Amino acid sequence: MTAWADRGPLPGVVGRAVEHEQVSGLLSGAGLVTLTGAAGVGKSALARAVLEEHTARYGGTVLRVACWDGLAQGGVTQALLRAAELPQAARRDVARALARRTAHPCVSAPAHGRAGGAGSPAGAPRTAGTSVTAVDALTSYCRQHRATVLLDDCDPVLDECAQLVRLLLAEPEIRIMVTARRPLGLAEERVVRLAPLPVTLGEGIAGPAVELLAARTGPAAPELLVAVCQALEGSPLAITLAAHQLDRMTLPQLAARVGADGALFCSGPGASVRHTSLYAAHAAGYALCSPADRRVWARLSVLPGDFDPWLAGCVCAGGDVPAAVVDGALERLSGASVVERVRDAGSVHQDTGAALPARYRLPRAARDFGRTQLRDAGEESAALRRFRQACAALAAEAQIAWQGPNQQVAVRLVEDEQHNLDTALTHPPQDAEDALSALEIAVSLWFHWAACGFRHEGRAHLERLLMLSREDTALRARALWLAGYLAAQERAPDDAERLLGQAWAAAVMHADSDGLARIAHAHGVQALFREDTTAAVACLEEAVRHRSRDPWFGPGPAHSWALLAVALAPLDAERATAAARNAWEARHSDGDFWLYSTILYAHALIERAHGEPARALQACRKALMAKELVGDPLFITGARTMLEALRRQVRGGAPVPDPDDDVPWWERGGPGLREQSSFSRTRAGS
Fold first, then answer.
1. Residue 667 main-chain phi, psi, to 5 deg
2. Which of 106, 399, 619, 624 is an S-S bond match for 603, by CB 3.0 to 4.6 Å?
3. Beta strands at 61-66 and 3-6: parallel, antiparallel or unpaired
4. pLDDT given for residue 609 in this prediction
5. Environment class of 616 (CB within 10 Å of its CB; exposed 0-12, middle 13-18, buried 19+)
6. Nearest Cα residue to 184 out of 160, 167, 200
């Protein structure tokens, strides 16, 4: 361990103005300030910059002890004494006294030699004649030289530093700054946690992370700088190491490299060995973890996004890691700045008001390191299989919630787990059983694809997974129907007919009456799109004659009744109204906004063709509001198109348009609609 009295210039930092001011203020009024944060976030640089300003303003010097580069004889205590340049004899006497005072009670001085002197910290043993020497020798030096103590990178000797700091804080004039990945845990401690640098500060405004990279690259395309910093998640160490790669590659090549999937193995010169690569930085922290925490860290690396304790338990628990240990490991890894906490436990859901569990995230560099450890241990395959099975359970939960009293719960669940579900769907399966787990996820998310506007994405997943799951099972039959249903909604008649034909054969073979009804429903949708009202009515009437035995999967009889009302609306107001009434009576839940909005849309069509435009306008508004709660851009487009025409008619007295002259509503987008990305949190119409 190196130790010196650092009186030279100290480095500045980029993008830490707020933290710099906060730490400076705390240092002026508190005896102990600790900077914590993940590996490579810039704790030491900020601490030294603050102390440079502090000493320039108030005078004095800095006693700095670097704790991670190997411990010399005597540990932190001896290093601090050497930094203070005390005479050898004084160092020996003080070290002996401090060693007795920081030792475990079982090996401390005998009881008759202790005295509870004034100013002694609670529980700290005092030895007559030496306790004053031990504390006063260092505090006297700090007073004489107006020195501030900097214990830098305390993680490998955190307990020893905590005991030493507790003794030094008995002198109120001493100022101590600590940097570590976790706090010391002392009552007097004021903790400032550093986050990665922001990449942007708003639309078109570069953040400190980009500023840091630009300082090393010179003039460059802003979009490339942003791309690199986003891929590196704003980590100052990662950005600095990546900039060193520009000696042998261009900035576009660097952006492509760091943006690609796979571990980041950038390396370069650093202030210490652990700062020469991201791998080394995390290896240092990994070495300090318990065996159980190391296993949890490694297994968490298969999770691509944020996660809750339940998902972490599903992936990490095993014979060598009991389920009860995982929650504690998450807390310890979070305290050590390995795992990032993105939501505290007990937060309230903005829509439902329900209490939410904590959510965590493993940053990319820590995830890359953990994945390497997992692979080296031969556990990657098993962890990936557990991850996909857990995602299948999440998708099944969302499917059940969709048919419950609040469909927004299902929508939010899928949105919260979007990164995990997407990875579970797209990562190549290891075998046929694993492929079935992926197919189960795709099928359970039928409502997400069919009702919430992600039809194209759902088709892509289903068609790929159907090629990998050739065995004739009930699950595959459902997948065939869903793929055909989505093709019908996307107005791809040839694909729809092919897939629905295969689904029909599978349903007949499995005697699946629910499947036959769903196929009739899909044919009704396809007939509506080709404006064949007669065929649409016939298919939907066949679908509504069926009593569903499985209310959790697919649109069900109620939705067939609602679409039948839509098909009949221009032709027969009485039959259409009766169909809409039957749809509501056949509902599975009062919270089915998808069904409710379709019924309202049917009423708007009925009133528009046979009733009062004002009543049609009111029903159309309600339909649009209900649709926007869950998405469904197809009907949102139709509702907005009709709403615009009805407003003109009601306000301007325009005649009722001839339905035959209308442009089909599914062929043009309403205002504000846009192409949706994979698992987009911004649904159409929001």
1. -100, 0
2. 619
3. antiparallel
4. 83
5. buried
6. 160
Q: HSE of 408 in the Cβ direction (CA atoms, 13 Å)?
A: 10
Place of tokens 């919270």: 591
Q: Consecutive sets of 10 residues in the chain, 686 residues long: mean pLDDT of each?
A: 37 82 90 94 93 87 80 69 64 52 42 34 36 61 84 91 87 89 93 94 85 86 92 92 88 88 67 79 93 96 95 93 93 95 80 78 94 95 96 96 87 92 95 94 96 92 93 93 94 94 93 93 92 94 86 90 93 93 89 87 85 83 79 72 77 58 46 41 32
Question: Running DSSP on this structure, what letter comes out for residue 307?
Answer: B
Give the tokens for residue 397: 């939960």
β-pair type (189-194, 32-37): parallel
Residue 658: per-residue pLDDT: 54
- Alpha-carbon separation of residue 439 from 62, 173, 553 (angstroms): 62, 66, 14
Beta bridge partners of 178: 34, 151
Which three-class secondary structure string do you get for 15-55? CCHHHHHHHHHHHHHCCEEEEEECCCCCHHHHHHHHHHHHH
Residue 430: closest CA among 476, 471, 384: 384
Residue with tokens 């001839």: 658
The answer for residues whose C-beta is within 8 angstroms of residue 77's C-beta and 6 or more apart is 94, 95, 98, 99, 102, 160, 164
Q: Which long-range contacts (CB under 8 A, 24 or more apart) does 297-300 make?
A: 297/329, 297/333, 297/338, 297/339, 297/362, 297/366, 297/370, 297/373, 298/370, 298/371, 298/373, 298/374, 298/377, 298/379, 298/383, 299/370, 299/374, 299/379, 299/383, 300/339, 300/362, 300/367, 300/370
- Distances from the Cα of 390 to the Cα of 137, 304, 416, 553, 597, angstroms: 59, 14, 14, 19, 32
pLDDT recorded at residue 108: 37
Nearest to 496, CA basis, from 527, 517, 464? 527
pLDDT score at 543:
94
According to the 3-state scheme, what is the secondary structure of 471-539? CCCHHHHHHHHHHHHHHHHCCCHHHHHHHHHHHHHHHHHCCCHHHHHHHHHHHHHHHHHCCCHHHHHHH
Q: Return the bridge partners of 34, or none.
A: 178, 191
